[in-house]
Amino acid sequence: KDLSVNEMENAFTETVQSVILQALSSSSFFRKAAFYGGTCLRFCYGMERFSEDLDFSLKVPDISFDLESFFPQIKKNLSLYGLDMEVEMRKKKAFSQVQSAFVKGNTLVNFVNVFSIEPPVSGIAVNRKLTVKFEIDTDPPCDATYEERAVNSFLYPFSVLCYDLPSQFAGKIDAVLMRNWKNRVKGRDFFDYLWFLHHGVHVNTSNLKARLKQHSGKDWSEADIRSGLNERFALVDFSAAVEDVSPFVSGLALESIRSWSGSLFSMMTDQYLVFS
Questions:
Q1: Residue 232 C-alpha from the chain's centroid
Q2: What are phi and psi of 194, to 5 degrees?
Q3: What are the pLDDT digits (tens) for 27-74?
Q4: What span, in angstroms and rounded, lies between the C-alpha atoms of 110 and 130?
Q5: 275 with 203: CB under 8 angstroms?
Q6: b (16+ CB within 10 A) / e for 172-183
Q7: What is the pTM (predicted TM-score) of this model?
């Protein structure tokens, strides 16, 4: 069937993500770093939603880590696959432990190359840019654990080092509790949170407590975490959360999010959240 603009953007974003990961896998990147977050859950663990960014963390803190040193390999791989994209570092005004970079390219030019369509394309302006962000935490919290996973993509097989699921769940709970939403609720965090509970994943408790201490400055007990989650769920506008995540899911996953409510999340937490 003909793809919608949103479907083409999701598919092309995953193509670029795959190429970036393949480039990093063929270098020394995963000797020092591990993959985590929504894109990791989709590529390596089969989660049902699309994801925009690539998130990495060093295994051992090193603020001198040079993310830019891996750009030549990424550029080479993008070119090999015929993708007309640029790679650039995000310049930050103040020091940050998180280094960020972007792969950017003209949406229409790349869609013509990848999907063999004839311009103009309805819904895509000629100057529209598609961007994939990737970033790495150079001062990660302690006690994460890792495993090597094969990446499920259209490219030839390759493997990456990932946070294991309990450590990924710790990161997700930290995001649900600590993320500053400003004016936009990040429904993707809530989709992932339920995914962990639904799949019976236990939480890496020591890693979660280290994360929360780093981000809040205080110690959290398991009871504090549970009550904090329930307080957060009571404040969330779940209609806005559903609107945020809808472009990234389809089929049964899209149907399931329409039943979201604060009481559902609290009940799931009370019944299925297990600390380990």
A1: 21
A2: -65, -35
A3: 999 999 999 999 999 999 999 999 999 999 999 999 999 999 999 999
A4: 9
A5: yes
A6: bbbbbbeeeeee
A7: 0.92
For helices 165-178 and 222-235, the axis angle rounded to 10 degrees is: 50
Report CA-CA distances (Å) from 109 to 79, 82, 98, 129: 14, 11, 31, 10
Q: For 213-257, how does the pLDDT look when each residue is reduced to its tens digit (9 = 90+)?
A: 999 999 999 999 999 999 999 999 999 999 999 999 989 999 999
Cβ neighbour number for residue 125 with a 10 Å cutoff: 10
Instruction: Give the residue ranges of DSSP H helices in 26-91.
Output: 29-32, 38-45, 71-80
Q: Which two tokens stand for residue 140?
A: 């990660």
Q: Distance (Å, rounded) from C-alpha 131 to C-alpha 149?
A: 25
Q: What angle do CA 130, 135, 139 make, to 5 degrees?
A: 170
- And the tokens for 105? 């390219």
Rounded to the nearest 5 degrees, what angle is found at the Cα of 274, between the Cα atoms of 198 and 195? 20
A 10 A CB-CB count for 76 gives 12
